[in-house]
Specification:
alpha/beta; Rossmann fold; 7-stranded mixed β-sheet; two-stranded antiparallel sheet; 10 helices; 11 strands
Length: 258
């Protein structure tokens, strides 16, 4: 009997932070018999939080009712508005009921909290949003990059999505496949600086980071996520429809066995 592919649904939306999902994608695609879908309310282009980088949804929510793995990343500009998207929240609530794993990277965990998937549970998010997570009735964890709560797993800020994805591969396909995936993307962090967490960063670095967060918040007042949504819609057309059609053919049934 032919075994069904493992369907992985990665949410893309206007205003998202691309590394939150691009890093995990490059890892999760190595799960044997996997089929990756980038999902949103409808197939088409979406503009990232930079306002410059563009990605595309290959499938709609309605086309993806029973994924095995669900992953949503965060946003530097759309965190507040995306939690009010009823189509997204309703879809997350439905698919989580049968999904093997539901995952949130960075402020993606805040979206999962709004969907009611983390009530009374432990989770993590970007350090700047831990208080928000706590205010939603979630036990915010500030000293772990990966936090599991039943079938929900959350990762800390941005780059932690790679760690979370490797963890998922290990759970779904086994440690040997996860190690092979790590080697294939040559994920061997040796950064020139050692300030990648609040515990390691000195006071000057923390102030500089806080200033950047404040500056981005001010920029949000100038360019609302709705603008990104309109820009995404404006990009739709024949060229994008052709590109998305081709992407769907490539992603559907793709086999990546390391």
């Amino acid at each position: 009997m032919t075994r069904q592919p493992i369907q992985i649904a990665i949410v893309v939306y206007p205003g998202m932070t691309v590394l939150d999902i691009a890093g995990p994608y490059e890892v999760l695609r190595f799960i044997p018999r996997s089929e990756v879908r980038f999902v949103w309310t409808e197939p088409g282009p979406v503009v990232a939080d930079s306002g410059v980088l563009i990605m595309a949804a290959t499938h709609s929510f309605d086309e993806t009712p029973t994924p095995d793995i669900v992953l949503i990343g965060g946003s530097g500009t759309a965190s507040a508005s995306i939690t009010k998207n009823t189509e997204l929240i309703d879809w997350l609530t439905r698919v989580h009921q049968q999904a093997t794993w539901t995952a949130g990277v960075c402020t993606g965990s805040i979206v999962l909290a709004h969907a009611g998937l983390l009530a009374g549970q432990s989770a993590t998010t970007h350090w700047s949003q831990l208080a928000v997570l706590d205010s939603l009735g979630v036990r915010a964890v500030d000293d772990q990059r990966i936090v599991q709560a039943g079938r929900v797993v959350t990762g800390a800020g941005v780059s932690a999505g790679i760690d979370l994805a490797l963890w998922l591969v290990g759970k779904v396909a086994g440690d040997p496949v996860a190690r092979a995936a790590q080697l294939l993307i040559e994920y061997d962090p040796q950064p020139p600086y050692d300030s990648g967490s609040l515990a390691k960063a000195d006071a000057t670095t923390r102030r500089a980071a806080a200033a950047i967060v404040s500056r981005e918040a001010a920029q949000l007042a100038l360019k609302e996520p709705a603008d990104l949504l309109r820009e995404s819609a404006a990009l739709s057309g024949t060229v994008w429809r052709i590109a998305i059609s081709r992407a769907r053919r490539r992603f559907s049934g793709r086999r990546r066995i390391p």
